[in-house]
Amino acid sequence: MNNATRTPLLFACMGFLIIATGVLQSWDSALNLLNFGLIAAIMALGVNMQWGYAGLFNVGIMGFVALGGVAAVLVSMPPVNDAWAQGGLRMIFALAVGVGTIIGAIMVFRRLKAQRFRGLIVLAILVIGAMIFRALFGPARDAIEAVNPAGEGYLGGLGLPILLAWPIGALFAAGAAWIVGKTALGLRSDYLAIATLGISEIILAVIRNEDWLTRGVKNVNGLPRPWPVPYEIELQEDPGFLARAEAWGMDPVGLSTLTVKLAYAGLFLLVLLILMWLAQKALQSPWGRMMRAIRDNETAAEAMGKDVKKRHLHIFVIGSAVCGLAGAMMTTMDGLLNPGAYQPLRYTFLIWVMVIVGGSGNNWGAVLGGMLVWFLYVQVEPLGTWLMSVMTAGLDDGSALKQHLIDNAIYMRFLVMGIFLLLVLRFSPRGLIPER
Amino acid sequence: MDFLNALVALLNFVIIPATAYGSQLALGALGVTLIYGILRFSNFAHGDGMALGTMFVILTTWGLQAAGISFGPLPTALLALPIGIALTALLFIATDRAVYRFYRRQKAAPVIFVIASLGVMFVYNALTRFIIGPDDQRFADGERFIISARDFREATGLAEGLAFRTSQGITIVTAIIVVAALFWFLNKTRTGKSMRAFSDNEDLALLSGINPERVVMVTWIIVAALAVTAGTLYGLDKSYRPFTYFQLLLPIFASAIVGGLGNPLGAIAGGFIIAYSEVMVTYAWKKIVTYLVPETMAPEGLVQLLGTEYKFAVSFVILIIVLLVRPTGIFRGKAV
Questions:
Q1: What helix, strand, coil percent values describe chain A, rounded to 5?
Q2: Cα B279 to the chain's mean position, in Å?
Q3: Is B336 within a domain?
Q4: Cα separation, A47 vs A320, whole angstroms
Q5: A39 in contact with B at a CB cutoff of 8 Å?
Q6: CA B247, CA B255: separation in Å to the nearest integer?
Q7: B214 in a domain, yes or no?
Q8: Do the beta carbons of residue A83 and residue A342 sit within 8 Å?
Q9: pLDDT of B336 strictly over 50
Q10: Quick one: which of B274, B271, B279 has its CA closest to B305?
Q11: How do strand A220-221 and strand A336-337 relate by DSSP bridges?
Q12: Residue A378: which H helix or E strand, with range?
């Protein structure tokens, strides 16, 4: 079976799975599956650009996704004027000193090529800069965090429409990816992996601990919705909507949540289709051929005069930007930024399962993998709990072992994901929709 | 100026904890570096393998405690360690047979092994949480201190106390024994020499009649021993929580790369470099500085370069510097 028949068939199966969920469970959970599946598909698309087009191994997806979420907060939340008045400018000054120190150290390091004490001079600049930075930063942070800590205690955002946060989230992720790529690309593939793992842990540490920026683990909630998506409450008060619910014989509350989710689904689908169109165009262009040539034989591509490291940096930045975009979209739909919820297994390694299962190198495969693996990830949980309760039915109700097994049944999903990845990698290493 | 008290505080808060942590990292990094040297891939399942192995030790410890067996002043976990190592070694070898051997025969690219190790990571992760759950577990027993802060203060009359916990002492002693045994094995025994030959040049090793499957099996057994020992010591010294072990992956890899991937000596040096930097950068030096400078100059702030929540940033920055300046690591590891 070639890809031309295989792809539509598999996507039809995926659609059937989601519709079956709607009929058997509820349309609400079917739409949830669809929406998160679409976001997962976009993340998988970004990772597929890095891995499938260029063979770059990125395990810092979680960090880039979280940066997208930060962008959503910083763009859309209203600014906290008190906090700005108390410490906003001081904070900006402190950050400028911090960044200036690093740039200054790099410039001195480059300028003093042949100097003997280069290391010591650079170290001195860094230490003095760090001390000034901390002296400025501490009071500014305390002043900002002291402003109404129960509800605000952070600088807030710019109060702009949240749709703007999507490209800005992509830019944030691209910036972080540029820094990592600049240092770790051109070395062994594993080094990039470790470096990305590190940057994602650090990004998460910053988001969890810098309360003045993101409120840390206190979460930011109540993010505004993007333009075409209505609020449930407004719908429920709209007479036209109520009349329609009446005519269709549906509960207006249920219909309003479905409408909201459908609106998100339409928006996400639109983004996915645009990205897909761009990605396919790029893959079939001379640029795409060059990327694949580099992936398949770096030495030969280099001999043809291609700047391998530079191309790798481009694709790494682009792929990470797509992950950042997906992260901003996810935070937008959630309506809150919850730094505690970012777990590497869920946001980094699960995306890898999606790419490998779907078919690395094939954009359609990545999208299908994203939706299918997300579907399994969600549906395995009730299945696991059910299986556990059947298996432990023979045990006493009060038994500690039974309770323990049922409590921990949710980890079944990681087991299933791991085994699924290993099986696909071994028996169908090119994935569900192979590259060619 | 109070030099003695400053020295005691330095020992108490920096040198002893960093040495213990460095020993744990070094053992973990040795496991990573051996896999890299012999099987030629970065094993992402190492952290979760450590968690799973430590879980076996904890379960055995609980069994022994329930049976009333104890190890006197030392923690019972040390008695349980061999059983945990044996179980983990069996598991690692089974994993190798089921997963990695296929790709070895295919001569797959290293990155395929790495992806396979991600799958293994998921499975180990799930098994650990399935059996013992995701929460903190306590399994330390026996004497808590070799030197307690109060005894030290009474004996010396200094204002500053020095506490030397049993877990720290055991960590350092065990690490020395394990490392000595490992180097003896690698340098003196026939199997160890064949492992080094295999690591240096696979083709020549095969030509001289070394059985690669045997080398791989011995490697997994040693890696299991190192991983379980490192995990148990870390659990005794700090606490056992499966997710922490996953997070240890970053400092462990940083140690191995900083020292030079594939080089056992480098892994040890890397472990201590990372541990000392992490502790020194995140320690609040206020106390020590206050002892050293005249009273009027005592610092107001904590004199802390970075909050402890950013300790991962330290391993990361060291890693980046080494990658930029000397990508093969300090001790010239195998590959760029």
A1: 80, 0, 20
A2: 15
A3: no
A4: 7
A5: no
A6: 14
A7: yes
A8: no
A9: no
A10: B279
A11: antiparallel
A12: helix A363-391
Which CATH number does the domain A3-76+157-427 belong to among 2.60.120, 1.10.3470, 1.10.287, 1.20.120? 1.10.3470
The size of chain B, in residues, is: 336
Contacts with B, A 107-136, CB within 8 Å: 130, 134
Q: How far apart are CA B11 and CA B165, in angstroms?
A: 13
Domain span at residue B145 reads 3-325
Tell me which residue in A183, A413, A422 faces B99 most closely, judged by beta carbons. Answer: A422
A193-244 pLDDT, tens digit each: 888 998 999 999 999 999 898 888 888 988 999 988 889 888 888 888 888 8
3-state secondary structure of B137: strand
B310: in domain: yes
Give the DSSP letter of residue B70: -
CATH assignment of the domain containing B204:
1.10.3470
Return all residues near B175 (Cβ < 8 A) that are at least 6 apart: B23, B24, B26, B27, B229, B233
C-alpha span between B11 and A365 (Å, rounded): 57
Among A122, A191, A413, which would you mutate to test the B interface (most chain B Cβ atoms within 10 Å of its Cβ)?
A: A191
Q: State the Cα–Cα distance between residues B58 and B242, nearest whole angstrom.
A: 12
What's the domain count of chain B? 1
CB contact under 8 A, A201 and B130: no
Q: How many CB contacts within 8 angstroms connect chain A with chain B?
A: 134
pLDDT of B210-227, one tens digit each? 999 999 999 999 999 999
Any A CB within 8 A of B203 CB: no
For residue A194, which residues of chain B lie inside 8 Å, CB to CB? 42, 250, 253-254, 257, 319
Tell me the shortest Cα–Cα distance from B81 to chain A, in angstroms. 25
Closest residue in chain B to residue A401, using alpha carbons only: B131
Handedness of CA A300, A316, A40, B124 (dihedral sign): positive
Residues of B in contact with A56 (CB under 8 A): none
CB A46 within 8 A of CB A65: no
Tell me the ipTM for this assembly: 0.91
Q: Does A193 touch chain B (CB under 8 A)?
A: yes
* Adjacent-strand bridge partners of B137: B240
Give burial (CB, 10 Å; 0-12/13-18/19+) of A294: buried
CA distance B84 to chain A (A): 22
Residue B330 lies in a domain: no
Nearest to B127 by CA among B54, B30, B232, B65: B54
Backbone dihedral angles phi then psi of residue B71, each to the nearest 5 degrees: -110, 40
* Interface residue B320 vs chain A (CB under 8 A): yes
C-alpha distances in Å from residue B120, one per residue of A67, A148, B92, B218 = 28, 47, 10, 19
Nearest to B257 among A191, A404, A412 (CB): A191
Taking the Cβ of residue B256 and every Cβ of chain A, the question of whether any pair is shorter than 8 Å is answered with: no
Helix segments in chain B, DSSP class H: 3-10, 16-39, 46-66, 77-95, 101-106, 110-131, 149-156, 166-188, 190-200, 202-207, 212-237, 242-247, 249-259, 264-282, 286-292, 311-325
pLDDT 10s digits, B147-182: 888 888 888 888 888 889 999 999 999 999 999 999
Q: Which of B224, B241, B252, B229 is nearest to B312 (CA)?
A: B252
Q: Name the residue in chain A with its Cα closest to that of B95.
A: A422
* pLDDT tier at B18, thresholds 50, 70, 90: very high
Cβ A408–B130 below 8 Å, yes or no? yes
153-172 in B: which are within 8 Å (CB) of A?
none
